[in-house]
Design brief:
Helices cover about 35% and strands about 25% of the residues. The protein has about 400 residues and is α/β, with parallel strands linked by helices. α3 packs across α4. The chain is globular, with a radius of gyration of 21 Å. The N and C termini lie far apart (about 45 Å).
C-alpha cells in the first residue's frame, strides 16, 4: 500500500506521518508539500526508507492529480480553504481520501469518488473524528437518544501555524452560517459565544465555560442518530483562557468581521493583520498548558430507563515526562494520530461505504478506534449514570 501525505510538512500532518511510520503497514509514505525545505526536513526527521518527498501545488490541478495517481489513499493535512481544491484532485486521481476539517467542500466531489469506487472521509482527527466515535459508542448502548453534547478543550497557542490562525478567525466569524445547534428536528443558527455551559474536563485542564462552535459533529450526528429520535445536539469548545479572552475582545470590537481598512494606501482586512501579527509574535506561539481534552455527554433510554453516558479522553502529559509528547506535540499528536489510524483502516479496505461519507458510517465499531489509540497511550473513559427522568438531565446541565 502507498499513502500520499498532502501538506505533510505541517506540524499536525507530520505527526500523523510519524504514526504511519511507527504503526502502519504502508510500503511507501510520501511527504507532499509546497514547502520543499520543510518537507525534506520531515523526511530527514522520520529517517525511514519508505519515506520520500514530492513537491506539490494544489492550485495546479492537473499536475497534482498526476502526482497522486497510483497511491491507495491521500492523507490530506491542508487548511480549510484548500480542502475543496485538494479533494477535487484526490477524486480525479482515483485515490481514497481523508482530512481533518470536514466543513463541507468535499461534498462537491462525491459523485466522482462513487464512480471511482473510492472512499472520502472528511473530518477525522480528535474533533471532529474521535468525538463522533465516543458519541456513537454511547448511542449504540441506548434504545433512543435524547441529547448529545460534544465538548473539547484545545490547549495550544492561538497561532502556531497559519492554518491554526485561520481556524480561529473562521470559527468565530459573526456571519458564519454553519455555527448551528440541532434542536427538535431543526438546525438553528447561533452567534459566537452562544449557549455558555460549564464543562469539567479531565485534569490538568479542569473546568471552563465553553460556547457553541461550528463543527461538523452537529450535522453528522443528526444524520447518524435520526433513527434514535435525537432531540438535541450541541458542540462546544474552548482554547486556553487568555486566547478566549482575546477572541471575545476581538468579537466585541467587531474585528472578527475582518472589514477592510487602509494602511499607507494599502487595503487590508483588519483580522488578516491581527492573524499575521499573532503568527509572527512570541505570544501567538506559546501557551502555559498544552494538549487536548474531550468530553462527550449522551442521554437517552434503555429498556424504559433513563441514562447519561459521559465519555472523556486522556493522553500522555506534556510536561516532558513522556518522550515525544512535550509541549506543543501533546496537541499536534492528539490531532494527527486519529487521522493516521483511520488512514490505514481505509486503505486496507476496512471501510465498505464509498463516496464522501461521515465518520459514523465509516467505523461502525468505535471500539476498534479506541483500541488503536490505547496502543499510543491515548485512552477513552466512560461513566454511566442512571437518571430518574430526562428532567434530571436538565438539572445536571
Amino acid at each position: 500500500m502507498k499513502v500520499f501525505c498532502l501538506g505533510g510538512a505541517g506540524k499536525i500532518c507530520r505527526e500523523a506521518i510519524l504514526d504511519l511510520v511507527q504503526y502502519s503497514s504502508f510500503e511507501k509514505i510520501t511527504v507532499a508539500d509546497f514547502n520543499e525545505e520543510e518537507g525534506r526536513k520531515v523526511v530527514e526527521w522520520l529517517n525511514d526508507s519508505r519515506v520520500d518527498f514530492v513537491k506539490v501545488n494544489v492550485f495546479d490541478h492537473e499536475e497534482t492529480v498526476e502526482k497522486m495517481r497510483g497511491y491507495d489513499i491521500v492523507m490530506d493535512g491542508t487548511t480549510i480553504k484548500l480542502n475543496g481544491l485538494s479533494t477535487a484532485c484526490i477524486a480525479e486521481a482515483g485515490c481514497h481520501a481523508i482530512n481533518l476539517n470536514g466543513f463541507g467542500e468535499e461534498d462537491h466531489s462525491h459523485e466522482i469518488f462513487l464512480a471511482q469506487g473510492k472512499t472520502c472521509l472528511p473530518g477525522f482527527g480528535m474533533t471532529p473524528g474521535l468525538t463522533q466515535m465516543m458519541a456513537m459508542h454511547a448511542a449504540n448502548q441506548l434504545d433512543s437518544v435524547h441529547s448529545v453534547r460534544v465538548s473539547h478543550g484545545s490547549y495550544r497557542p492561538i497561532a502556531f501555524s497559519k492554518s491554526i490562525a485561520e481556524t480561529t478567525t473562521y470559527e468565530y466569524d459573526p456571519n458564519l452560517p454553519t455555527r448551528v445547534v440541532y434542536e427538535n428536528g431543526e438546525f438553528i443558527q447561533v452567534p459566537p459565544f452562544a449557549r455558555p455551559r460549564e464543562i469539567q474536563l479531565p485534569e490538568p485542564y479542569g473546568t471552563a465555560v465553553q460556547y457553541i462552535i461550528p463543527h461538523s459533529e452537529t450535522k453528522t450526528l443528526a444524520k447518524a442518530l435520526k433513527n434514535k429520535d435525537v432531540q438535541l445536539i450541541e458542540v462546544r469548545g474552548t482554547w486556553p483562557q487568555e486566547n478566549m479572552e482575546l477572541v471575545r475582545a476581538l468579537y466585541n470590537y467587531g474585528f472578527l468581521k475582518n472589514e477592510t481598512i487602509t494602511i499607507h494606501d494599502q487595503q487590508v482586512g483588519i483580522m488578516d493583520c491581527i492573524s499575521e501579527y499573532l503568527y509572527q509574535s512570541e505570544k501567538g506561539n506559546t501557551t502555559k498548558l498544552y494538549g487536548y481534552a474531550l468530553h462527550v455527554e449522551v442521554t437517552g433510554t434503555k429498556n424504559g430507563k433513563f441514562y447519561q453516558h459521559t465519555l472523556t479522553h486522556t493522553h500522555p502529559a506534556s510536561d516532558g515526562s513522556v518522550e515525544g509528547w512535550e509541549e506543543l506535540r501533546a496537541y499536534t499528536r492528539n490531532v494527527g494520530i486519529p487521522m493516521a489510524i483511520a488512514t490505514e483502516l481505509i486503505a486496507k479496505g476496512s471501510v465498505a461505504q464509498k463516496g464522501v461519507i461521515i465518520p459514523e458510517k465509516a467505523f461502525l465499531n468505535p471500539q476498534a478506534i479506541f483500541m488503536e489509540l490505547e496502543k499510543r497511550g491515548i485512552f477513552v473513559q466512560e461513566e454511566v449514570k442512571e437518571l430518574q427522568s430526562l428532567e434530571d438531565e436538565i438539572i445536571l446541565a
